[in-house]
TrEMBL record:
One of its GO terms (biological process) is innate immune response. Its main location: cytoplasm. Keywords: ATP-binding, Cytoplasm, Helicase, Hydrolase, Immunity, Innate immunity, mRNA processing, mRNA splicing, Nucleotide-binding, Nucleus, Phosphoprotein, Spliceosome. Residues 8-31 are annotated as: Disordered. This is Pre-mRNA-splicing factor ATP-dependent RNA helicase DHX16. Component of pre-catalytic spliceosome complexes. Component of the minor spliceosome, which splices U12-type introns. Interacts with GPKOW. Interacts with TRIM6. Interacts with RIGI. Residues 237-410 form the Helicase C-terminal domain. It catalyses: ATP + H2O = ADP + phosphate + H(+). Residues 48-212 form the Helicase ATP-binding domain. It is an enzyme of class 3 (hydrolase). One of its GO terms (molecular function) is hydrolase activity.
């Protein structure tokens, strides 16, 4: 068991108490009654009046008050979509866009994709009739490419603004500009109760409309001592809550798909072993790549007598509201991107979340009744180790993509772009340099023809460059597959706990000399030959839904080839060179002391899951770096150094690519797969 101490006891505060949970009868109310019961509802008229009177309005309201699902409907009812005009509502996360669109379609009694739809990368569920468009912030950003003044929109609602994603931040600058020459456009910036003053200042002191929250007290508990293994601690705590606490569902915050799946498996496993000794516990995951039918299950009411535990990523912090949550379990971590502009290395790491995040998470327990939040860290850690707020993404990510997009929109002077918080100067500079090296910009920093094409593809500049290069090497068929498989990254292989040996053998069976890109291509090709069969996936420990998604992505990219003037072609050899033409920036060489990146001389390691882990080729390129215990290269491919000169003569000098010690290399460097676990 894990020992928790109540925060109020630590501080000598009184124990809060709240009204009882809603009765059965209340839960059975119709959808319209639920709509009327939301905190935003009493403010409907006042809100619509404020929108009519101001071009830009900042809307602040507690999570669950109805901002996302209700306000676009109010605008629709008020006639903002007359004459074919549309309303956009942006979400930082794909899952949220899909889920709220589905909810709103249900509330309006229409089929999803008709009047109400969503649009996320590689998946468009809208039609000519769609007037309420929920979309990721990245998709609205791309709308600017085809419609720079957003002329077909009457209202743009930038939702979850407090998340401060890169795309949301860029949208702020662009929308502020559009609003100046389109006085009839309404701009709404909606946010949880954070940062609203900043948004107001940015939009020339736009008024802030506050929706008073309804929130029950949440009792906060901390662990007495730090927990070494938070995943295990989570599982133990969930069961502890389940066994000792009165009814009410549990929400657990973990950092990503792998962790969530592991936790769910452990929970199910232990429940199975406890059998009828405990009441039924429904274990439901929620994360970005989860298929929508499974996602929808988290919203279904818990059957009487049972308890539901939702194991979620940050998505449940503010973007989604799940009814009936009374207990929150917060290990205090999230997955965060960070970027080092000096080395150009981007990494995704599990880091402690901010105090603001921790408080949002705790708040999720107090929506329907008084709740409890169990923090798997000490009160001391909360006070001394957590940052106040999360650093905006724009300050900790690479900007290649966004710079390319802004350049395509004709924005040349990026240093003077209207940023809410500017990115580090070095990051901007490096993005320009990289785009120049990729041939997207000329030496004056202007967009080239190839850059224009790269911007057309909704993928990272290196990936677009790879796709464009496939024309030269006549291998677009293979490259499309590689691109699609890379974009569903890390969720191809299935490794159930009770069959690890079989699963690992199945994976190794796909290995081909050369590296992981070839393995991905091999998996896809065999799957296609099986007739895209789910049975084949099952037999080969491959995740069917990841493959299905890869197929969708591939189809979408194929549909865009014509726009970027790449013909369909297939060959058997030179796609490795096309990959190199896109990824020459991400290269490493083997030195006596292990792998070093070619330009920056950073120490890096091949990921233990890679097919090249035991091979240790001298030169390789990698798709991405992930920092866990070390800086790991994920998805690596063996290359020859001479190719780098061939595909990027402006970037590499022959001298850099010489091997200073070309004699014998040690056969194997570093630890074995087993040693690394
Ligand atoms: P906000 O954007 O202010 O956080 P939302 O508009 O997302 O609030 O949610 C308002 C309410 O709508 C939630 O409290 C919840 O009761 C309900 N709701 C939202 N999405 C769903 C869903 N998919 N299924 C059931 N209820 C939902
Ligand atoms: Mg919302």
């Amino acid at each position: 068991t894990i020992e928790f101490v109540r925060a109020s006891q630590l501080q000598g505060d009184e124990e809060p108490s709240g009204p009882p949970p809603p009765t059965q009868a209340q839960q059975k109310e119709s959808i319209q009654a639920v709509r009327r019961s939301l905190p935003v509802f009493p403010f409907r008229e006042e809100l619509l009046a404020a929108i009519a009177n101001h071009q830009v309005l900042i809307i602040e309201g507690e999570t669950g008050s109805g901002k996302t699902t209700q306000i676009p409907q109010y605008l629709f009812e008020e006639g903002y979509t007359r004459k074919g005009m549309k309303i956009a509502c942006t979400q930082p996360r794909r899952v949220a866009a899909m889920s709220v669109a589905a909810r709103v379609a249900r509330e309006m009694g229409v089929k999803l994709g008709n009047e109400v739809g969503y649009s996320i990368r590689f998946e468009d569920c809208t039609s000519e009739r769609t007037v309420l468009r929920y979309m990721t912030d990245g998709m609205l950003l791309r709308e600017f490419l085809s419609e720079p003044d957003l002329a077909s929109y009457s209202v743009v609602m930038v939702d979850e603004a407090h998340e401060r994603t890169l795309h949301t931040d860029i949208l702020f600058g662009l929308i502020k500009d559009v609003a100046r020459f389109r006085p009839e456009l309404k701009v709404l910036v909606a946010s949880a109760t954070l940062d609203t003053a900043r948004f107001s200042t940015f939009f020339d002191d736009a008024p802030v409309f506050r929706i008073p929250g309804r929130r029950f007290p949440v009792d906060i508990f901390y662990t007495k001592a730090p927990e070494a293994d938070y995943l295990e601690a989570c599982v133990v705590s969930v069961l502890q809550i389940h066994v000792t606490q009165p009814p009410g569902d549990i929400l657990v915050f973990l950092t990503g798909q792998e962790e969530i799946e592991a936790a769910c498996e452990m929970l199910q496993d232990r429940c199975r072993r406890l059998g009828s000794k405990i009441r039924e516990l429904l274990v439901l995951p929620i994360y970005a790549n989860l298929p929508s039918d499974i996602q929808a299950r988290i919203f279904q009411p818990t059957p009487p007598g049972a308890r539901k535990v939702v194991v979620a990523t940050n998505i449940a912090e503010t973007s989604l509201t799940i009814e009936g949550i009374i207990y929150v379990l917060d290990p205090g971590f999230c997955k965060q991107k960070s970027y080092n502009p000096r080395t150009g290395m981007e990494s995704l790491t599990v880091t402690p979340c901010s105090k603001a995040s921790a408080n949002q998470r705790a708040g999720r327990a107090g929506r329907v009744a008084a709740g409890k939040c169990f923090r798997l860290y000490t009160a001391w850690a909360y006070q001394h180790e957590l940052e106040e707020t999360t650093v905006p993404e724009i300050q900790r990510t690479s900007l290649g993509n966004v710079v390319l997009l802004l350049k395509s929109l004709g924005i040349h002077d990026l240093m003077h772009f209207d940023f809410l918080d500017p990115p580090p100067y070095e990051t901007l500079l490096l993005a320009l340099e990289q785009l120049y090296a990729l041939g997207a910009l000329n030496h004056l920093g202007e967009l080239t023809t190839s850059g224009r094409k790269m911007a057309e593809l909704p993928v990272d500049p290196m990936l677009s460059k790879m796709i464009l290069a496939s024309e030269k090497y006549s291998c677009s068929e293979e490259i499309l597959t590689v691109a699609a498989m890379l974009s569903v990254n890390n969720s191809i292989f299935y490794r159930p706990k009770d069959k690890v040996v079989h699963a690992d053998n199945a994976r190794v069976n796909f290995f081909l000399p050369g590296g992981d890109h070839l393995v991905l291509l091999n998996v896809y090709t065999q799957w296609a030959e099986s007739g895209y069969s789910s049975q084949w996936c099952y037999e080969n420990f491959v995740q069917f839904r990841s493959m299905r998604r890869a197929r969708d992505v591939r189809e979408q990219l194929e549909g865009l080839l014509e726009r970027v003037e790449v013909g369909l072609s297939s060959c058997q050899g030179d796609y490795i060179r096309a990959i190199t033409a896109g990824y020459f920036y991400h290269t490493a060489r083997l030195t006596r002391s292990g792998y070093r990146t070619v330009k920056q001389q950073q120490t890096v390691f091949i990921h233990p899951n890679s097919s090249l882990f035991d091979e240790q080729p001298r030169w390789l390129l990698y798709h991405e770096l992930v920092l866990t215990t070390k800086e790991f290269m994920r998805q690596v491919l063996e290359i020859e150094s001479s190719w780098l000169l061939e595909v990027a003569p402006h970037y590499y000098k022959a001298k850099e690519l010489e091997d200073p010690h070309s004699k014998k290399m040690p056969k194997k460097i570093g630890k074995t797969r087993e040693e690394l676990g």
